[in-house]
Amino acid sequence: MRMSFPFTAIVGQAEMKQALLLAAVEPRLGGVMVFGDRGTGKSTAVRALAGLLPPMKIVPGCRYSCAPDDRSPCIEGCRERAGKRTETAQVPFVDLPLGATEDRVVGSLDLERALATGEKRFEPGLLAKANRGFLYIDEINLLEDHLVDLLLDVAVSGTNVVEREGLSIRHPARFILVGSGNPEEGELRPQLLDRFGLSVDVRTPTDLADRIEIVKRCDRFDRDPAGFVAEFQDDERATLDAIAKARKLLPKVQVADEMLELGARLCSAVGADGLRGELTLLRAARAQAALGHKKEVKAHHVTEVAVMALRHRLRRNVLDETGSTARITRAIAELMAV
């Protein structure tokens, strides 16, 4: 198996890495949308984070990677068959190709078994394989809209429902959805973009020293993957410990009404549609506080995640040509000055 490039070895792209860490701590954020240039480490960062996480415990033989301590029923009765036996598996990283059909994504009837035995049996799709892991879609703005809508619905609900070909199947599909795309090749519909929890912009580094360091690290990893990974072992372990501690602390993090008011005022000031902005802002700020080992959300936690949580939810203002990031930053400055 090919080694993953270390997450902590990625040069720059601080906002993208922070968004992925927040999503790893709080999966209910609803995924991350990454817009930017080609070759800026988008898929590398997602794959690296999936590779960084420790192996997960699963029920042996379960095609949905069910957790042994999960009490929700599995359609295959895997826990009854396995008893108390468990095994470990790497956190899934599923790369969804643009040409994937709906059957390949959601699953379908196992035709070979149906023809051979006459038995109707469900063949799980990519959503089942991504359960408890990451589902990555490159160039998501080129994916058919009905598939994007389906993926976002499943990412939010955590359940894939299949009603087709005489089958009625409901199985767990809890994954962190990460989409990436280049705006020059087409925009994602605002209604779908709004469903993503966080949105980040990545650009080709302009600092000469950073560009040189990126090339050097990529070259060293290609020539000696094991040696390169070993160099960052301590940093990787520290990041893993931070994620584990934040996940444990997250349910205990308190959010005062003053912080909820700050989030609501900010969403109102920038003209964010709906209430998803406030809810995402709340969850992201709580995850940010947990990563900082804090049991209470403060104003700086809200402002630190505001751009990621709101930049893709702003209405277009024909009288204001400034970008969404600048509008949010300006609104934060005005609110904090009051």
Q: Look at the helices and sheets and give the structural class.
A: alpha/beta
Shape: globular
Number of strands: 11
Q: Oligomerization state of this entry?
A: single chain
Give the % helix.
40-55%
Would you identify the regions where 5 or more consecutive residues have pLDDT less than 50?
none
Could you spell the SSE succession in H and E letters?
HEHEHEEHEHEHEHEEEHEHHHHHHH
Short description:
By secondary structure, the chain is of the alpha/beta class.
Question: What are the salient characteristics of this protein?
Answer:
two-stranded antiparallel ribbon; 15 helices; alpha/beta; five-stranded parallel beta sheet; 11 strands
Question: Could you explain the architecture of this structure?
Answer:
- A hairpin with a 2-residue loop joins strand 8 (159-164) and strand 9 (167-172).
- The chain has 15 helices and 11 strands.
- The strands form 4 sheets. Strands 4-7-10-1-11 form a 5-stranded parallel β-sheet, sandwiched between helices. A two-stranded antiparallel sheet has the order 2-3. A two-stranded antiparallel ribbon has the order 5-6.
- With 338 residues, it is of the alpha/beta class.
- It has helices at residues 14-25, 42-52, 78-82, 102-106, 111-117, 126-129, 145-157, 190-193, 208-223, 225-231, 233-249, 257-270, 276-291, 299-310, 324-337; strands at residues 32-36, 56-58, 87-89, 93-95, 107-109, 122-124, 134-137, 159-164, 167-172, 176-181, 198-202.
- Helix 11 (233-249) packs across helix 13 (276-291), helix 12 (257-270) runs parallel beside helix 14 and helix 12 (257-270) packs across helix 15.
- The model has no long low-confidence stretch (mean pLDDT 83).
- 46% of the residues lie in helices and 14% in strands.
- The longest helix has 17 residues, at 233-249.
- The radius of gyration is 21 Å and the shape is globular.
